Amino acid sequence: MISTTAAAGMTVTALGMVLTPGPNMMYLVSRSVAQGRIAGLISLVGTAVGFLVYMTIANVGLAVVFVAVPWLYIGFKAVGAAYLGYLAWQALKPGGRGLFEVRDLQRDSSMRLFRMGLVTNLLNPKAAIMYLALIPQFIDPARGHAGAQGFALGGLQISVSVAVNALIVVAAGSVARVLARRPEWAAWQRRITGTMLGTVALLLAREIPARARV
To answer: Taking the complete model, does pTM exceed 0.85, yes or no?
Structure first.
């Protein structure tokens, strides 16, 4: 139903999105470091359900609202760019804390971990942009039902995202311990994370005026 080119393009796009630090990764790592791998994996289940919600919404046609009311989409991108810029500043500012630095966090129940993973993803601008702006670019109406292609592409994106995040969750504790022994590595990790976030924010911000003119 979907071409090999579309599948490959979706895989690369999904990898790029999941490897760029954002709200999901930060929440999953914080829970894994503070409460253990099981807590991180339970949180990951919540984020996966959030992706399923977005995929369903996008493929039953509700995303047409962003086409009918384009300023909503423009505003959403502006908010997303501003949020990523804020996260970049949090990492780069003097005294900022890195993604894998240990924090004293309250231990949450399994239900709360799942719920917070779900809510974090539903409020994640990257997830909305993925389903409302990126996945439709890989849909080819000539190959059949657009909605079915959307579900296939969305399923591929979820598989990539869950697999990569699961590896990050499992490794988070070990990475945190290594960085605790080598503070200079933590500083570089923070700089790299902040730079990546800032770059994504700038790229999103550059697209906003063009969208507004359209």
So the answer is: no
